[in-house]
Amino acid sequence: MLALTTVSAALLCTAAPAQDFPSHPVHIMVPWAPGGNVDITARTLQQAFSDALGQPVIVDNRAGAGGTIGTAAVVKSAPDSYTLLLGSSGTVTSGAAVFKNLSYDPLRDLVPVGPIQYVAMVLTAAPKTPVSNFKEYVALAKSKPGQVNIASAGNGSSNHLALELMARQAGLKLVHVPYKGSGPAINDLLGSQVESMMDQMTASIEHIRNGRSAALSAARTPRTLRPGAERRRDNPEIRRSRARAGNRAVPAVPRLRPAPRVSGSWPD
């Protein structure tokens, strides 16, 4: 709740001073399909954010191109703080490095108003994939180089970069299958239409707990991972990842000209 209060206060500071902000609904742009980490985070905070602002808050999903389509829409919107981007590591950090000729520059065009989440990455396997831990997954992938596929939220997403890092460190040749967000990718994983997936823990944890997908390995976070997949006694391998790979959710608004003074800064 403290994070929401801080974000709400910062949002008020970024609004045009002549307005009695907010006087009508505020939109949160989620640049991914429903069902993924950023979407779940937005909908979890939606009511509390509305209560803090005293106006309805509407979640708007606009997926595609690794989150850059929805992000560009926020950048092009009026800089009045009524359209808020729920940015992530992929859309405001890696996206700018991966995609050429972006129509926006996150540092130039967006103002962060306070980080609200950090979540670790988890590697999961589909029900029909014959592995139960990371060691078995590596053995499977090495026995069929270039044949085992792995889904992500999209090209240039933090999921994508995390799986590429894992593949490089483990010496694996995998087939990347990008989606327009984690939600559609998880649906195909649960149906064994893809063999594995790199995802944020937020969107995958319930499927792991229910036994619908297998957690093979999870990255560490700055604070030790919360209770969940890594504590499954039947899957000790998930404890052994020393890598830190995760995703930050950071609300941001279009930058005013001249830019207002706000306390927020892009997380490291």
Which sequence of SSEs, written as H and E, runs from N to C?
HEHEHEHHEEHEHEHEHEE
Mean pLDDT: 81
Rg of Cα set:
19 Å
Distance between the termini: 22 Å
Coarse structural class: alpha/beta
Shape: elongated
Roughly how much helix do the residues carry, as a percent range? 25-40%
Can you describe this structure?
It contains 9 helices and 10 strands. It has 268 residues and is α/β, with parallel strands linked by helices. It folds into 2 domains: 2-117 and 248-254, Bordetella uptake gene, domain 1 (D-Maltodextrin-Binding Protein, domain 2, 3-Layer(aba) Sandwich), CATH 3.40.190.150; 120-246, Periplasmic binding protein-like II (D-Maltodextrin-Binding Protein, domain 2, 3-Layer(aba) Sandwich), CATH 3.40.190. Strands 1, 2, 3, 4, 5, 6, 7, 8, 9 and 10 form a 10-stranded mixed sheet that branches. The longest helix is centred in the first third of the chain and has 17 residues, at 37-53. The model is unreliable at 1-6, 223-245 and 257-268 (pLDDT under 50).
Topology at a glance:
Layout: H1 2-14, E1 26-30, H2 37-53, E2 57-61, H3 68-76, E3 83-88, H4 89-98, H5 106-109, E4 110-112, E5 117-125, H6 134-143, E6 149-152, H7 158-170, E7 175-178, H8 182-190, E8 196-200, H9 201-209, E9 214-218, E10 246-254
Parallel strand pairs: 1-2, 1-3, 6-7, 6-8
Antiparallel strand pairs: 3-10, 4-10, 5-8, 5-9, 5-10
Which descriptors apply to this entry?
single chain, 268 residues, alpha/beta, D-Maltodextrin-Binding Protein, domain 2, 9 helices
